[in-house]
Input
Amino acid sequence: MKLTPEQQRILEGTKGKTIAKVMETLVRYGELFGAESMVEITSKYNHLVTSFGLKGLASIYTLFDQLIEEGAVSKQQFSVDPRPMDPNVPSSLLQKLVFKKLMYTKQEEYERQLEQLGILNDKAYTCTCYMDEVGNTPKQGEILSWSESSAVVYANSVLGARCNRNSGIIDLMGSIVGYVPNFGLLTDQGRKAKWIIEIRTSKKPEAQLLGSAIGMKVMEDVPYIIGLDKWLGTLDDQTKTYLKDFGAATASNGAVGLYHVEGITPEAAQQGRALLAEDAKTYAIDDAELQRVYDSYPVIWKKQDAKPKLCFMGCPHMSYEQLITWSRRILKGLKEAKRTKVAIPTVFTAAPQVIARFNETKYSKALKKTGVIVSYICPLMYMNNPLCGSMPVITSSNKLRTYTSARYYTDEEILQQITTGGIKA
Ligand code: F3S
Output
């Protein structure tokens, strides 16, 4: 690794022992991936993945205390992933006890540490920090040190920023010293596509299903997607929402950190097929392939035909556009089903700032009357415990399906279930 004189001085301890250790960790981490230099982080804000005060993460609290005590705090403010608890989300007495007394016992303490480390504000808890309402939206070409996989893939692909898929602590360390190792998705070569994905479906593919199919095929490689622009049109709010959900599925069902969509995402719009690596392989996706992927998902509920107890929508957090569209769909669906309330307890999750904007609209009250709860929670953190392991939860999030026992349904099937209580055969 070749360091600049300034980086070398940091490594030698001019900014204190702790920062020197942080620099050394980053240098070693970079060398493991073949990085030959460190580059400066240029984004205004950082985003951290660790937002939860889980009892078992004691070493993180000790590390954070040490960083705070020694003044080794980043000058870069940051947002973090969503909070793990919200009293408005339905939970049994036992669940509440487990959350408060066994799992997230350090939440308040941890949030105080985040304040000292430089969290943007009390509302900066969301995985969709890049939304306009939240304001942590990097520009094309900016270098980041983020780790939330759904946010990294969005920033790289839809915004054209440059970020590797780091771990939560490496992400924080990068932000403390202001540099990250230069490799992978930070380089032009690392942003070349090793896969051509041909979309040959007869209708607009379900974002979460398409992302899942591509993620499972290409794993950590970069895909270049052809034929999706026909269904997406331009990079407007609806397309951004689509790509948010699509990207999260590629990143969680595989390990994709960047994708290019021909004619849509910034680098693909500017460079076109010059982004293809030599010998790129091809994967064609038609209706039958999407059905095959859907049918391959295991259902790990104890009782396969159990009646769903809860429906979670919004992993990653829903956009404003999505909250409005879903409100309209639910109100219409309930009217057609001659019902006033949803048939399954349903939680929509979104960033606090997006919820505040939604609360200004007429749909907020109307949705509340149907029984749908809008929350800032992370559904995964709610479900990530043995009590939820046996709970029949449904979702159209392929990330939530992958990491928990939640069962995946398409958006249309979810709508039918929550408005009528069943799915049309
Ligand atoms: Fe966001 Fe939590 Fe899903 S962080 S992407 S809502 S797992």
